[in-house]
Write a structure and sequence with these properties.
Layout: H1 46-61, E1 64-65, E2 73-74, H2 77-82, H3 85-94, H4 99-116, H5 124-127, E3 136-141, E4 147-151, H6 162-177, E5 186-191, H7 205-218, E6 223-229, H8 233-242, H9 248-252, E7 254-256, H10 283-307, H11 316-319, H12 341-344, H13 353-366
Parallel strand pairs: 4-5, 5-6, 6-7
Antiparallel strand pairs: 1-2, 3-4
Amino acid sequence: MATTVAQPDTTTQNGLPEKGSGPLKTPYPVPTSTTSRPKEHPPLSADQQKKYDWLLEQAKSWTEVPSTKGKAGPLTENERFWLTRDCLLRYLRATKWNQKDAEKRLLDTLTWRREYGVEDVLTWDHISPENETGKQIIVGYDKEGRPCHYLNPGRQNTDVSPRQNQHFIFMLERVVELMPAGVETISLLINFKQSKTRKHTAPGIGQGREVLHMLQTHYPERLGRALIINVPWVVWGFFKLITPFIDPLTREKLKFNEDMRQYVPEEELWTEFGGKLDFDYDHAAYWPALQKLCEEKRASRKQRWIAGGSHIGEHEDYLAGGKETETEEKVAVPAATDASPAATGAAPAANGTEDVTETLAKVELEGIPGGNSEVEPAKTEST
């Protein structure tokens, strides 16, 4: 892109502006707060390890990605790179450790990523117009080291189109690229405050249902927490309607109108959400800076993957700069069993995409208004 990055006059080592140098206009690469610490991953039970080993061998045997839309073909290097150990485990947890279901869902996602164009259609230039007003921002990290993904529906600047859904998926992919070692979930912060200068054009329930389906199906186990403020009555009604169909563990991650400083260090929390991070969105500065940071992070991960042997099943912690590799498996503990998710550390899957989407379809037919498509997905994602 031809746009140059406008940097603050003086910055700290982490890329934050020095006090008195003006608001931050670009993202920064690592948490700055000493209170941001990722949770440790629980070790696998002996039975879970066995199921993972089976799924890993299946993934290693894949040579073709199926497609009915002209996208079929050999498994690419980037697809092998995507099939990490943690990726396989997320699909196993989402299917309650059903190996066959996890295998099918992984293959379905590989097909979807090709057909949706995650790697080639959703480019920086294609998505850029959607973010000119800063309706989605990635800046700062919560107390568990998760990147903070801000949604600002009041800054809506485009008419309803497929690119609005693509925008969310594109930004979610960028959040994943910015995750530090030990982190695999996102922190979603949503402010429904209306803008005085821009017309808020909330997409319909059908568009929201599409994003919801993509998230539940192709990004399982990715929601860490959703913090939501200034909720209008229309969205409250939507939440109440779908609450019975949201998995209880997911429901616990939705926090409404709470002090966000409980979950995000105030120095990492944007002032518009009650924190002390002085941030001002300037698309000409932010967008190329985010692109540069994400491309550097991805290139670093790719280099480590190649240096480690280009394995399917590599550890994401290693790729993000940690020490553990695929050959350094954690010792499995036989005490836990799959019978109890609490005992194994596995989260039960949501009650099912079919239940939720059928309910939303009923809502649409009855003419009950829904919320913004940028917000709905996170509320029903399997955790």
